[in-house]
Amino acid sequence: MPFHLLKYLQPTHYFALKKRDGAFVFPVVDQLPSAITNQLEPDTSFKSALSQTYDLSWQAIQKGYIGDAATYQHFEALPLADNYRFIRKYFHLAWVVYVLLFRFASLKNPFKEWRAFYGSRHTASSCYLETPLVHTAYAGFESDLLARQPKVSVIIPTLNRYVFLKDVLKDLEAQDYTNFEVLVVDQSEPFQQAFYEGYNLDIQVIRQDQKALWLARNTAVKKAAGDYLLFFDDDSRVDAKWISAHIKCLDYFNADLSSGVSISKVGAEIPANYSFFRVSDQLDTGNVLIKKTVFYKIGLFDRQFERQRMGDGEYGLRSYLQGFLNVSNPQAKRLHLKVDSGGLREMGSWDAFRTKKWFAPRPLPSVLYFFRKYFGDKFAILAVIRTVPFSIIPYKYKKNKGMMLLGVFISILLLPLVFIQVIKSWRLASTKLIEGAKIDSLV
Q: Does residue 194 surpass a pLDDT of 90?
C-alpha cells in the first residue's frame, strides 16, 4: 500500500498485493489524463511531495478510476507524520487511535508516534466518496457485445429454499435479455423435480446429493454452454435489466468480471462506494458475471472452502493477481434476503467470524487459510486482531456502532476463550495449507 499504516487497517486487502506482472493497481499520477486529475483533491499539507502524489493515486482508485495508465511497481517510505495524516483523512478517529495503541504495543518509539499522531490532530476528514469520478459516456454507450447477444449461463446452487427460488426464477423470466440458460444445482431434501415445471426458461436442473456449495458451482461451470457465467443466489431479487446491465459493464470497461452490488436486508450498512463504478476489491458469487475464459486461465473454485467461507473472495483475489479486470457495477443490483433457513445455514456457517458454539474455531479455518496463503502469517494476525473483537456481537447488530464497540469490550473480558478459538482456527488452517489448494482445471 502507498501508506505504511494502512497495513493495520486493511491488512488483507486485494490492493495491498502486486499483480503477477509486478505492478500494483494504483496509477502513476502524472500518467493520468487531466479529466481525471481535475476531479481529485490535492493535499498540500503533507510534508512530503511524494506523499501528496501517493494520496492522489489512492484517491483515484477509491473514487472509481478505471483505465490503462501506468501503475506503481513499488512505493517509497514516507514520513510518519504523513502516514498519520493520511489515515486521519480517510478513517474514523477511533481507528487512528487503534493504530497508535497498536504501534505502542509493538514497541515503536512512543515519542515519535505520539508526535506524529498529535501533529495530525487538525486534519479534516475527507468527503471524497461524495464526489466519485464520473463516467459521462456510459449512459449513452451502445454496447456491441449486448447487441451480439452472447449466450449467458446463470448458475444457481440451491438447498431447501424452494419458496424463495420461485421468486428468483420469476425474476429471470422477466429479464429484458433473453439469450441465457439457467443451471440450478439442487441439493434439497426432499428433492422436488416437479417444482421446475411451467417456467418460461431454458432450465437445466442438476441433482446433487452431496451438500457442497463449491462443488455445485464447479459442476455448473463445467456444464455451462455460455461464454459468460452469471452466478446468482437462491434468496435474491433482481430487476428486469440485471443481465443486460452486467453485459454492458463488461463491454464498456473491457472488463473480465462484473461484480454487481448486493444490498442486504440485514447486516452492515451499505458502503458508500457501492454507488459508482470502480475497480472491485471483492467478489460476491451471489451476483457476478465472469467470462468463461477466466476459468480456463486460473481454474475453478477452491474446494478448501467447502462448508466454510471466503471461497468467492479467494477467487476474486486470484483473478485480480492474474491481471483480470473486475469492475464493481452499481447498475447490476440484487437484494439479498439472507433468509434464516436453507443454504449455508444448513451445510455450514454463513458468517466467517461468528461461531455457533463456545469452543468452535473463530474465525472459520478457511478464512485464515485464505489470509495466510496470500498475505502471510503476520498480516493474517493483523487481520484477526482487526476483525475478531467485533464478531462477538451478533450479525444483526452490524449496523449498530454502539453494539459493535460493546463487542470489543466483551472480547477483552472473554480473551482466554477467544484466544482458544483463534488457536483452533489457526491449527485447522495450517492443515489446509499443508494439503494445498483443491482447484480443478476447466478443460
A: yes
Q: Tell me the longest C-alpha to C-alpha distance in the chain.
A: 72
Determine if the pTM surpasses 0.90.
Answer: yes
Contacts of 248 (CB under 8 A, 6+ apart): 141, 143, 145, 146, 331
- State the Cα–Cα distance between residues 428 and 305, nearest whole angstrom: 12
Stated as kind and residue range, the H or E segment containing 243 is helix 242-253
The whole-number pLDDT of residue 415 equals 77
C-alpha distance from residue 321 to each of 4, 18, 186, 301, 377 (Å): 21, 7, 32, 15, 19
Yes or no: say if 260 and 117 are a contact pair by the CB < 8 Å rule.
no
Cα separation, 158 vs 429, whole angstroms: 27
Query: CA–CA separation, 266 vs 354, rounded Å?
Result: 15
16: phi then psi, degrees, rounded to nearest 5: -75, -15
Question: CA nearest 344: which of 387, 404, 395, 272?
Answer: 395
Lowest mean pLDDT among 128-137, 237-246, 287-296: 128-137
Query: If residue 337 lies in a helix (H) or strand (E), which one and from where to where?
Result: none
Q: Which stretches of 28-132 are DSSP H helices?
A: 34-37, 49-62, 80-90, 93-105, 110-119
Q: Which domains are seen in the chain, by residue range?
A: 6-130 (no CATH), 144-344 (3.90.550.10), 351-435 (no CATH)
Per-residue pLDDT, averaged over 82-110, amounts to 96
Element (DSSP H or E) covering residue 264: strand 257-264
CA separation, residue 96 to residues 102, 103, 118 (Å):
10, 11, 11
Q: How many CA atoms lie within 13 A of 391 on its CB side?
A: 21
Any residues with CB less than 8 A from the CB of 163 and at least 6 apart, and which? Answer: none
DSSP string of 164-180, one letter each residue: HHHHHHHHHHT-S---E
pLDDT 10s digits, 18-69: 999 999 999 999 999 999 999 999 999 999 999 999 999 999 999 999 999 9
What gap in Å lies between CA 367 and CA 237, rounded to an integer?
28
User: How far, in Å, are 139, 200, 242, 258, 299 from residue 245 at the CA level?
Assistant: 11, 21, 5, 9, 26
- Residue 164's Cβ-side half-sphere holds a number of Cα atoms within 13 Å equal to 23
In the structure grid, which three cell numbers stand for residue 249, read together? 459493464
Mean pLDDT of the chain: 93
Q: What is the pLDDT of residue 398?
A: 56
